[in-house]
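Risk register update: the risk of archive-format incompatibility is retired. Evidence:
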Amino acid sequence: MSAAPLERSPRVMPLRSPLPKEAPKRTSPLRVVPPRRSSAAKAPFAVMLVVLLGGGLLGLLLLNTLVAQQSFSIHDLSAKDKALQQREQDLSSQVQALEAPASLAARATALHMVPSGPPAFLRLSDGKVLGDPQAGAAPTVVKPVVKPAAPTGSTTWTGPKPPTTTSTTTVVKPTGAHR
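Archived output:
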């Protein structure tokens, strides 16, 4: 067998049909229609567009102004809120300082109040008094004596000698003790 060049055989069918298709028949012929001229005036339409655009811009400007005004109001209110929060903290710290036991004792002493003695209790079932009630007594107040401080780090006194004083202790009794 010899290698012969491949030749086309006449029996190969083409992919398309060799017969042309028939064009569809048109029922009405097409024609170009001339453009219509509108008889309406264009000026009122243009005026209406300008009025709508102007109204929209004015509305946006008004809305932007109101938003900016509200923003300033919010800023002012937040500054007032911060100041009020700071004042509240200051007042609460003052209340805590006034509620401290040492502060209460100092104010009670300033009002000439005295601490109470040991408490007594009443038993309601039989009316018996439990404990030995005693009236409060005014505490004795001792004023401390202030002595001058001795120099430190030196064994000799370089300045004038401090005056020698004798220390005395005084006892103050409150007047008008309340019972």
